[in-house]
Specification:
alpha+beta; 2 domains; 4-stranded antiparallel sheet; 4 helices; elongated; binds zinc ion
Length: 118
Amino acid sequence: MPKKGYKSLSVKDDFYTLLERVYTERLELLQRHGIRSVSAWVNQMVDAFLTEGETHRVEHIKSIEKVVKMRDKELNKVVTVKLVKGVMVCWECGSSRCIHSDYARQIHGHYVSLQPSK
Ligand SMILES: [Zn+2]
């Protein structure tokens, strides 16, 4: 039974073993990004995958330390996202969960893929 507010998904044993192995190999890197479980890691990857299509809407302009600037083609304006206390906050939407902050997280290196590290 998942804890309150959560649902569970089933995956084949082999796939879970693969996820757990890669997670363990990258434990230090993932933990530096605030990911503390296989479940949190899978959630982050699925979230990045689902928002990937939307990010074609935005185009990277530049990144300076804790600031990512991008052009939003739909809004036709420059949008600024800033890293505030470890959270990407969009100055346009006032949110940390919008297309701009998601894109900034990917640009800022908070996206960690399933591919083996080299
Ligand atoms: Zn935004």
